[in-house]
Amino acid sequence: MTPRLHCFGESGNAYKAALTLTLCGIAWEPVWVDFFRGGARRTEYLRLNPMGEVPALDLGDRVLSQSGAIQLWAAERTGRLLGPDREETLRWLFFDNHKVSAQAGMLRFLGNFLAPDRRDPAVLAWLSGRLRAALKVLEARLSEGFWLAGEEPTIADLACCGYLFYPEPFGFDRADWPAIDRWLDRIAALPGWQHPYDLMPRREGASPSLGPLT
Question: Is 195 within 8 Å of 10 (Cβ atoms)?
Answer without folding.
Answer: no
